[in-house]
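Dear support,

Our group has been running a series of protein-ligand predictions, and this particular one with guanosine-5'-diphosphate is the one our PI (initials K.S.) wants archived with full inputs and outputs. We had some confusion internally about which version of the output was final, so please treat the block below as the authoritative record. The input we submitted was:
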Amino acid sequence: MTAPHPDPSQLAFEIARRRTFAIISHPDAGKTTITEKLLLYGGAIQEAGSVTAKEGRAHTKSDWMSIEQQRGISISSSALTFEYSGRHINLLDTPGHQDFSEDTYRTLTAADSALMVLDAARGVQSQTEKLFAVCRNRGIPILTFVNKMDRPALEPFDLLSQVENSLSITAVPLTWPIGDGPDFKGVYDLQTGQVLTFDRTAGGKHRAPVHTAGLGDPQLDALVGADLAAKLRADVELIQAAMPEFEPGAFLTGELTPVFFGSAMNNFGVEHFLANFVDLAPPPGPTLTNLGERPPEAGFAGFIFKLQANMSKHHRDRTAFMRVMSGHFERGMDVTHTRTGRKLRLSQAHTLFAQDREKVEEAYPGDIVGLVNPGVFQIGDVVSVDPKVQLPSFPRFTPETFAAISLRDVGKRKAFMKGLTQLAEEGVVQVFYPTDGARDPYLGAVGPLQFEVFQARLREEYGVDVELHVTSYGLVRWLAGDPSSVARFARHVEDDQGRPVMLFRSRYDLDYTAEQHPEIEFLPLPRDL
Ligand code: GDP
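Confirmed final output from the archive:
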């Protein structure tokens, strides 16, 4: 039996208090550390595990896969949930490494806002720019946290102009750092006029105590020292005279980013950020579908933005990450899988808090639910009480690097094919099959680290060892045009859906072939995506 539907006012209340966001950053800027501290302040965990001390201490909750722990990078996204100040917050963890941009890109489709984390000494870095561009494309609001202020940092005014110049977004500070490196004393809240200074707690494990004073308060000199107090007063004067004001409208359309400063490792400024975030960041809005914009108050619909097999050793099954886009989700509800028209009962629904799994009985727009995937779900699929609603398109990246793969133990062919299919379905790699059927498939990836993940997961999760050989291919194109011309032309390779593709060694090869065959179109992505 399912629970009674909430009345419209309860649905509206639950939507209004949802905040679903993702963190984007260049590797090492501090995304994992901030995630951990946000959970600490959200009361989801009591003690933050340190990512620096990889040995002998708790690993962070969001870095759960063993390969991630070995390499110290976040590979696959998990979804974390906590409550803060009456808000229900869903934090989507995204891989920072550039080889995982496709996964990140998809995860960002499920977020209503993003937090951009910058390293105070490095400012905007290459991966920040790429991920920022994805958020910009989607028009979602972006908040900025300048991390590692406890280390020697760029001059804050220079950092803000760097953000403005390289990302073409107006950067408006809402807090201002007092000192940097060993002299970092805290931040000044430009909106309330309060200075927040912090005591460093041992290893940044616990919530840091905060002291406050006003800018004119003589106590300030005692708290931060006369020199820093004088610099702060001068900086604030300059900000008030020369910087644009914070405009919520421009923030919501992605033209302006509010900037906060702090040091996640030492708990400086993280809670203050969180308190501002819940007020600034928007609740779930409408989703663009084939039937137009679907408001979050409409009947239940959710879309799949990520697939992941074998999330934990205890649950060797496939999980689909679903974002609720509208209405009230209840476990056990009957829906339509709208791409196939199949009726489904969503009885296996659980949380995605790393390895822990708890049943999800109900969920609201913005929430992320893990559904056990019986093999029907593809990325971009919709499940809904409304059988016609679908997403217009879902982002995919074109692979840029290719490996030939061969199986060491031919007796493992069945397990190999299963792993290959499931990992390709998740988007770990793309698979291309030679059409003569005789040789082993090619793998395509955006970056070579994906191959290593593929190989490691195939070994760990499917017990299959494979050899990967680097190829000289560097480009793939899907073939389109008059079907008989394509059939005559394509003798080479096809993708996992049987669509004809061709691999090229260089752009020159591609251009030459295209010139010789004007009857064929060479597309960077299949036309139906
Ligand atoms: P990610 O790759 O963006 O997830 O970055 P991590 O959170 O793993 O942090 C990378 C490194 O920077 C780790 O060694 C952290 O301990 C360290 N780190 C994170 N935040 C701070 C900070 O505020 N100050 C300092 N000094 N180090 C930090």
